[in-house]
Amino acid sequence: MTLTQLKYVIAVAETGSMNEAAKKLFIAQPSLSQSVKELENEIGIELFRRGNRGVILTSEGAEFLGYARQVAEQYELMEARYVEKKNVKKKFGVTMQHYTFAVNAFIEMVKQFGMDEYEFAVREAKTFEVIEDVKNFRSEIGILYVNDFNRKVLFKLFSESELEFHPLMDCGIYVYMWKGHPLAGRQEIAMEELEEYPCLSFEQGNYNSFYFAEEVLSTYGYKRLIKACDRATLLNLMVGLNAYTLCCGIICESLNGDDYCAVKLKSDERMTIGYLKRKGVALSALGQKYLEEIEKFRAMDDRELI
Is the four-CA dihedral 213, 173, 164, 90 of positive or negative sign? Predict the structure, then answer.
């Protein structure tokens, strides 16, 4: 296995075509195909499925591609710094479910490290995409929750993806709504009292399973349910329709404003928010600092909401 072969695999995956990749690499197409085939034979894995419409990554190929990109990027950094004598920015990325506090922690981390030497990426994504981003080295850290309902399914997926889940905080369940909602002044709310109001849920695309829902009680028989794709839309629906969603109860007025509140749900359900990382891969200094900022939000059920 050579670095050149890894670069070939990356180019083929990005173009979806042996011909286009060969043009991009300025080599003959038969030479490229032969080199990729030799690599597949060496590692005993079919990286691509060939067809009339081009080539498609296999599931094993997608995993291999994540490692190949990491090796190629590290080599480029070393080459730029020690051969070309360039000052290349270090990269750090995090992918998360839709948690404002996780965005706030990212902001604080960026403020402390600055952007002169670092290139940052933050992605709010669907549950499966959080897992895939960490698996494929697109992000160093993934933030999501597990509970008794989804734990077995998600942990199986974590194991298959060579990922580790580390708990950060254990939370009760809260009803998140705008302060003009008829139930906003309550100390606690029962599910039955919410029946006439629309429940909001983040849409999960092709992986729209109960186990991948970002909200607990995903199997509850809601009378009114609306799926949305982004945080801004959810907030608008809360105001326009007196809608609500279920969350961990940690809110950041500095980012979302002070028009919203979280009220304790009458339920024994719990959720554990934690982070994903690659097995056997140490966290960078930025990753460690990011988790330190996340830890500042750790609290028990009786906390004062932020």
Answer: positive
The two most distant CA atoms of the chain are separated, in Å, by 70
Q: Give the residue among 26, 109, 161 at the shortest CA–CA distance from 283.
A: 109
Q: How high is the mean pLDDT of the chain?
A: 89
Q: Which residues contact 50 (CB under 8 A, 6 or more apart)?
A: 18
* Confidence label for 260 from pLDDT (cuts 50, 70 and 90): very high
Q: Give 88's DSSP letter.
A: P
Per residue in 138-190, pLDDT (tens digit) is: 899 999 999 999 999 999 999 999 999 999 999 999 999 999 999 998 999 99
DSSP reduced 3-state for 283: coil
Q: Which residues pair with 177 in a beta bridge?
A: 261
pTM score, two decimals? 0.73
Q: How far apart are CA 166 and CA 143, in angstroms?
A: 10
Instruction: Give the Cα separation of 289 and 283 in Å (integer).
Output: 10
Length of the chain in terms of residues written? 306
Q: Which amino acid does the sequence have at 129?
A: E
Q: Each residue of 44-57: pLDDT tens digit? A: 999 998 887 788 88
Q: Within the chain, how many helices (H) and strands (E) appear?
A: 10, 13
